């Protein structure tokens, strides 16, 4: 059996994986999106179902005012003595920030409130449980001394699991394999046949991303790098290659003894643009002379020698009839106000129109999901009547507050707006009658065609296709991928209005 990469399409970067008996669990970064750290379950490493989120309570995750691509960086997931551990970094937090750890006995939750490590610096913490019962925390930080910008160290220190405190001496393990290499990060330790192996990425998370390996006879080092470093990179394949930016890998061994790597990479299209962000890929790992060998990542490959386990496919259309939002829906930053309801009007998602806007570092009335396909369609049916001159509601395709596309009903009609570098431009406007509106977008590569209907099935294109490159990190900057969702705002002014969405449908389209 073969499988298709990526195994988690869309914005699922920095994967970390662990195995418990025959079950595999995986987490990824979420940055400014809430809930934080989705957790997935698989039996065959190819098919994954989302169990929920690790950080699903405001007491666990304060994202107030977080800048785009701040927030939750590079979680690591491990299991030890019946307990799951997830460790990560909150970057640029307004209250707490830095490294923290949460635990659970069930990966679906509930997870504990955070244990913070105020003495650490840097990001991308990881955990290693040795076979002598000792636990070790390690991560990436600015090198001491720092010889050039982006010069990083990988550090190690023992973790007391009873007190959740770091104890003992700190050890410096690694500062990258390549001379002058920047951003040695995403470290993970493994003990294999009595030898300690360290994997770390370097070169940044774009085209120059790479994965390097080192090993030692003792956990505290010294570590010797592989003469074959970097053991994985696609930077030598050029920007025209269909998969770029490979790195930030985590290893897992099956019961059968086979090794696999879960890693991030991007799929550029429409030029060197990757609106879907950094995605999760799967590849086999072999061992030669005691070193891991990882082949170039392929769009399709032979699947692991595990019994296939498919999960029921989630429905393409959400009718909002469940008591809670489905796990693929996200908020932008921690919602401090219950601005959504599934019960005020049964069978509908109601969003309260509030002053918060997607043009600011706020928590707007936005329920969104990842764009997961290069070619896709998304549609919804909305009931909304503007009550003030700045009231608006509809669909948004968003990379961040400075780069997004809006299809919204306003007091002036139905409008398409494109925001780039913080400047919003009206692309087209059309009058629409009162009552229900059907809104849609159909994407073919970087062409995003907006459409609408004033009656069921009577769809009309609205303006020309919108250039979607504002949704790519190569234009907008940052580490996230594009989202699409339902949105309403009064743009800084008080409002008692609301928007009702009857359903939301998202589906891939055949490649053009």
UniProtKB/TrEMBL annotation:
Keywords: Glycosidase, Hydrolase
Gene Ontology molecular function: hydrolase activity
Region (Disordered): 213-236
InterPro entries assigned: ConA-like_dom_sf (IPR013320), GH43_C2 (IPR041542), Glyco_hydro_43 (IPR006710), Glyco_hydro_beta-prop_sf (IPR023296), Glycosyl_Hydrlase_43 (IPR051795)
Domain of life: Bacteria
Biased composition (Polar residues): 215-230
A UniProt-annotated Pfam family: GH43_C2
Domain Beta-xylosidase C-terminal Concanavalin A-like residues, every copy: 317-506
PANTHER family: BETA-XYLOSIDASE, BETA-XYLOSIDASE-RELATED
Family: Belongs to the glycosyl hydrolase 43 family.
Protein name per UniProt: Glycoside hydrolase family 43 protein
Originating organism: Sphaerisporangium aureirubrum
